[in-house]
Design goal:
Chain lengths: 152, 150, 421
């Protein structure tokens, strides 16, 4: 077996997704480049990926969040960007995680709406809003869920 | 700052909300990152080898399929580390790390069994539900902070 | 035929997490093939899953269904399909089986189905992926139905080495020996076959090798064709059984592993190879004959003296327990012929349970390989499958015949090259 020498040891990579009428994925990438200070930024169709020390990445993420606080979503990633082990071009197909993101991003508008509403709530209002029934007794079927998306 | 296990462990939304409200999300990426950044034998894509399903024996017996034991070797240590959990029921369209229903069932059970604060909910399907969804998560996470401070 | 690598679509569940993805990729690379994940969008997964109609809970199995459908419906091109899931996962086994059936019935793409665990290595997968790659790359050669010129086939198996010389569609020389030193055994059987045919090595126009020792012997003989035994044996079987058109099922119970191949117009469509334990292979029958004090060649005749031995408690799921039940049966006073028949029944049962579930059994069922000469085993298999099993002449030489037949595809080209030179 071939020995494995990892790259980017000690770094973290985060995905930054944006789903907003005001901010494009390119805006996010541009803004990230502006404050990058040498940290690796990779522009993507949904926003960007940032790879660097945890402190650097966190600094950039905090900055990006201020651009469109309710419509930017950030997630950890195990791989550094463009890694051939996960790259669509090398595998001939999307990595499985891509479809999961596709699924969750469909509800981004609802969550963005929720984030904005919640940000204006007092502690009492928050407790009240959190008291509404969720989950419903029966989880919704994915197809019904999709129908709801379409109707919305 | 509490370590909050997110289920689905690949969830973008949960990862975002937990970090946004000041805690550390524990999910697949954390374990995968550790594999990718540890030297050893070359085993693309995930740097998982036959040893990982063997490590998984701590959480699942030998007659449990190797893919489940391998996944449990990713999640088991995170569950042990977790101080709280948020569970969204029915992650029926999360693939890859969350692609195996049997692993997901076992994982869910382990999270429920552990004595720690836990929030269970489902995905929102409207703007109103979006408010409830975010409010429940925020309140849960705020309460964790209060507990820590107390 | 272009030089582009053969593209094998990977439809698996659990491979990455079992730590064996690299084994799959490396095995494919060794045989000049490339694995790829068929690209599907989320909406394809939802539609395909709904249309396929098999309810499953695991998202990755839904993804597998969508990937298979995308290939069968022609939205994604693939030369072969490797479909695999974790050993002992019931949900995945159902999906794997149904997808395999769906692919075979609705496309001409060769498919191999497999269940793995963390111990699965690239060497185990090699022969299977090589077979997939061969069917895709060498369709022309595989379509050959008549042997031409003078050709030789050498089959270096785990138990025995065989050689066949063919001339103008006839077998003119054979050689057979237990495998000891791979090269020496090959040289011995070649000498035997040449002597019988009255030909010299220089008369041979093309050579094909197969079996475990195929690479080593292929190099030694400068063979024109070095090919795994799955495609070679199935080709040899339908050729000898005169079943080159339409469907057929080939069963080869070998010394180390078993093969079950479903063939359509002479070309393998789906196949399975392996076995959990030697208890399901010819090795168990060797142990039985040793214990009964008869030569393996006499075991068949002995077993036919019994009505079938189904009443003798015998289970060779594991060779150790199988041997134990053998000893117990003899100690309990069962007659040697009944014990012999019971061993045959047990091996047939294991092959039926472990392998024949992975291919569609379509008549004629052809049994080949050395074990097909053990009549009790053929009878037991026929009873199990409720069909008359065909054992063609020279069935013990099947790999060598297949190799000689396929290698004859090189004869005309070589003759033309010789003329030019």
């Amino acid at each position: 077996m071939k020995p494995y020498v990892p790259e980017y040891v000690g770094t973290v990579t985060k995905y930054v997704f944006v789903d907003s009428p005001d901010t494009t994925p390119q805006d996010i990438a541009t803004a990230a480049y502006e404050v990058a200070q040498g940290v690796m930024i990779k522009e993507t169709c949904f926003g960007c990926q940032i790879t660097g020390s945890p402190e650097d990445v966190s600094r950039i993420v905090d900055h990006l969040r201020t651009l469109d606080p309710y419509r930017i979503f950030v997630k950890d990633r195990g791989f550094p960007p463009g890694d051939s082990r996960r790259c669509r071009a090398d595998l001939g197909g999307a990595r499985p995680g891509y479809l999961g993101h596709e699924f969750e991003m469909k509800m981004a508008p609802y969550i963005s709406y929720g984030l904005e509403a919640v940000s204006k709530m007092t502690a009492e209002e928050l407790a009240k809003a959190a008291g509404s029934p969720l989950p419903t007794e029966e989880p919704l079927d994915a197809d019904i869920l999709e129908q709801l998306f379409l109707e919305d | 700052m509490a370590k909050v296990f997110i289920y689905p462990a690949t969830s973008l939304m949960l990862s975002d909300l937990v970090a946004r409200y000041g805690h550390t999300p524990l999910g697949s990426a954390v374990s995968i990152r550790e594999h990718i950044q540890t030297p050893g034998f070359d085993s693309p894509p995930l740097q998982m080898t036959a040893e990982d399903p063997q490590k998984g024996l701590k959480w699942a017996a030998v007659e449990v399929p190797s893919g489940i034991r391998g996944r449990m070797s990713l999640y088991g240590p995170l569950v042990e580390e977790a101080e709280a959990a948020i569970i969204i029921d029915e992650p029926e369209l999360s693939f890859g790390c969350m692609g195996c229903a049997r692993t997901n069932e076992l994982l869910c059970f382990m999270l429920r069994e552990k004595d720690m604060p836990r929030l269970e909910l489902r995905y929102p399907a409207s703007r109103e539900e979006g408010v409830t969804f975010v409010a429940q998560i925020k309140k849960f996470l705020d309460d964790l902070k209060k507990e820590e401070e107390a | 035929m272009s030089d582009r690598p053969v593209r094998i679509a990977q439809i698996t569940c659990g491979a990455e997490y079992s730590g064996i993805q690299n084994e799959i990729t490396s095995a494919a690379a060794t045989v000049g093939a490339q694995m790829f994940y068929p690209d599907v969008a989320l909406k394809d997964v939802k539609t395909a899953y709904k249309e396929f109609g098999l309810p499953v809970k695991s998202p990755d199995l839904k993804l597998a269904i969508a990937r298979a459908k995308a290939i069968v419906e022609g939205r994604i091109e693939a030369d072969g399909i490797f479909i695999a899931s974790c050993f002992r996962c019931a949900e995945a086994a159902i999906v794997r089986n149904e997808l395999r059936r769906y692919i075979v019935e609705n496309s001409k793409i060769p498919v191999v189905s497999y269940s793995f665990n963390e111990r699965t290595s690239s060497s185990t997968l090699l022969t299977r992926l090589e077979a997939l790659s061969t069917i895709a790359k060498r369709r022309e050669l595989m379509a050959r139905e008549v042997q031409v010129g003078i050709t030789m086939g050498v089959d270096s198996g785990s138990s025995t080495t065989k050689c066949v010389i063919m001339k103008d569609n006839e077998i003119v020389g054979t050689g057979w020996k237990p495998t000891t030193e791979v090269l020496k055994s090959a040289d011995d059987v070649i000498a035997e076959a040449l002597a019988e045919s009255g030909l010299k090595m220089s008369d041979i126009e093309a050579i094909g090798t197969t079996g475990y020792g195929r690479f080593l012997i292929g190099k030694h003989l400068n063979a024109d064709l070095v090919q795994e035994e799955l495609t070679v044996n199935s080709k040899g079987a339908v050729y000898l059984a005169n079943a080159q058109k339409g469907f057929a099922t080939v069963i080869d119970i070998g010394g180390m592993d078993n093969k079950a191949i479903s063939v359509n117009d002479g070309i393998p469509g789906s196949f399975t190879m392996g076995g959990i334990c030697a208890g399901a292979s010819g090795r168990f029958l060797e142990m039985t004959s040793k214990r009964l004090g008869v030569d393996i060649t006499e075991l068949g005749a002995l077993s036919m003296k019994s009505a079938g031995g189904e009443d003798v408690p015998m289970n060779s799921y594991c060779i150790v327990f199988g041997t134990q039940s053998l000893v117990n049966a003899l100690a309990a006073g069962y007659k040697p012929e009944d014990v012999a028949a019971a061993s045959c029944h047990s091996v047939a049962q294991q092959v039926y349970e472990q392998q024949l579930q992975e291919v569609d059994i379509k008549e004629p069922v052809i049994m080949v390989g050395g074990s097909s000469l053990i009549q009790g085993l053929v009878r037991a298999m026929g009873r199990m499958l409720k069909t008359e099993v065909v054992v063609p002449h020279h069935s013990q030489y099947i790999g060598a015949v297949g190799a000689a037949l396929i290698a004859s595809g090189f004869v005309e080209k070589k003759r033309a090259e010789k003329k030019e030179a």
